Amino acid sequence: MRRKSLLFAMLFLCLPAFSQKGGELADLFRQGVGFYKAGKLAEAEEAFRKVLKAKPEDPLILSWLGCVCLGQGKVSEAIAVLEKAVKLNPRDASAHNNLGSAYLEQGEIEKALREFKEATRLDPNHPDAFFNLGIALLRAGRPGEAVQALKKAKSLNPHDVSIVLNLAYAYRKAGMRREAVSAYRAALKYKGAPPEALLGLGLACRDAGLHLEAVEALKRYVQLKPGDFVGWMNLGLELFKIGRMKEASTAFEKACSIKPNDFAAHYNLALTYARMLRLSDAAKAYEKALKIKPNDPMALNNLGWVLFSQGKIEKAAESFKAAVRADPKFSLARRNLGLCYYKLDRTDEALREFLEVLKANPEDAEVRAIVAKIFFDKGENEKAIKHYTELLKLRPNDVAALNNLGLAYERIGNLEKAKECFERAIRINPKYALAHNNLGVIYERMGDLKKALDCYRRALDISPGYEHAKYNYERLKRRLRRS
Fold it and tell me: What 3-state DSSP class applies to 458?
């Protein structure tokens, strides 16, 4: 949205000084200006070049020619001509402004900034120069400074909606969210404000957390621009955020129809279907996304989740495995792969994946609990003790972990440690019948039969149908009678 100075506005004030054949050259110059105003840039260039042959050192003619060349995309030619114009008349603010525009078109941002700043120095009331300075500062990644330049442009030309829109954008890029919203709202009050003002308002409201207003602005935008992919995508994202999944899916479906080969559109549609529990549709949408980006780890992981939720565990495992191949550091996919293997009773494979997960995230309590249980079930008691101990640092009140830790200690003959675990579990949950029974076993092994019998009785008081406690109580009672 850069603008070159409107040189024809100065035509009757700044006519070149013609001597020989002056009237003929003046007419030719006016023809060039007329062609420029009519948008006939090739004809304008031809006219100005003819005049330039007679007056090759005239800075005004050079400025006009440079402007015309720039308008035709002949950037290198424009720069050469405008550099000469500026050299011949270094006090011409409009020539500096046009040269800055040419540099900016060529991507030479620092040179462009230099020229725009010089233009504003020479003419502090030049709105186009301040506008272009603001755009160049945005391109340079300096949005805070761009805001100041564009505010100045707006003060000089308050009726130009394009200045207000770019100021709003600069506010957004500078993180000035409320100011951006206000500026976009103001732009929409201008007669002839383009539909893009609604898109900008929607994005600014999104940034400011005003999601309902963002949705309304984006809805109005796509009504005016029904073929705009960006509008539908952002509308879908905002609807997703506020939980209006059916409308979000419609927006993403529209985006997919506009750009059927866009990965993000299919991915977001799949995510929305999954949230709606339309699992078959979600799987199809993820598969379409993966045809576009076959090795996208997140899409592979999410497809795996959908398949897992459908009970297709083997297929889910394949999808998670592919996600891990695509990104070996993707711990979530590896975790999910481990869960699939665990569900399929492929314990060794599950353990391999879970141990890798714990390397990356030692504080994953759920995985730590499964690993501890696998080692416990395999009879690898020392390893089970290690992992249950780590788990209890994360979940100190986990009575099931304390119970299993106590059993692991009991297996290796460390009865004191086992006793401590069961007693701690009972302190946390006095109604935990399992720990009472197991504490009774420890007391029995330690020779304190009366305490053991009392523990078995408590377990039965809590859970009268607890067969192990019932068996232990009756057995020990008979033993005590015989002794």
Answer: helix
User: What six digits make up the tokens of 37?
Assistant: 């105003």
To 5 degrees, how large is the angle CA 429–CA 431–CA 432? 70
Q: Which of 21, 83, 78, 92 is nearest to 50 (CA)?
A: 21
Other beta carbons within 10 Å of 11:
16
C-alpha 173/C-alpha 170 separation (Å) is 5
Domains and CATH numbers, the chain: 1-153 (1.25.40.10), 295-361 (1.25.40.10), 367-425 (1.25.40.10), 430-483 (1.25.40.10)
Average of per-residue pLDDT across 419-435? 98
* Per-residue pLDDT tens over the stretch 133-186: 999 999 999 999 999 999 999 999 999 999 999 999 999 999 999 999 999 999
Is 394:363 a contact under the CB 8 Å cutoff?
Answer: yes
Nearest one of 100, 4, 15, 116 to 61, comparing CA atoms: 15
Question: Within 295-430, where are the H helices?
Answer: 297-309, 313-326, 331-343, 347-360, 365-378, 381-394, 399-411, 415-428
In the prediction, which pLDDT does 11 show?
Answer: 29
How is 162-202 classified by DSSP, letter by letter?
HHHHHHHHHHHHTT-HHHHHHHHHHHTTSTT--THHHHHHH
Question: Is the Cβ–Cβ distance between 98 and 92 less than 8 Å?
Answer: no
pTM: 0.82
Instruction: Tell me which H or E stretch contains 120.
Output: helix 109-122
Average pLDDT of the residues in 386-399? 98
Say how many CA atoms lie within 13 Å of 180 toward its Cβ: 27
**What DSSP assignment string belongs to 225-290?**
-TT-HHHHHHHHHHHHHTT-HHHHHHHHHHHHHH-TT-HHHHHHHHHHHHHTT-HHHHHHHHHHHH
Helix axes 297-309, 313-326, angle to 10 degrees: 170
Structure token digits, residue 360: 């990356």
Dist CA 188 CA 47 (whole Å): 41
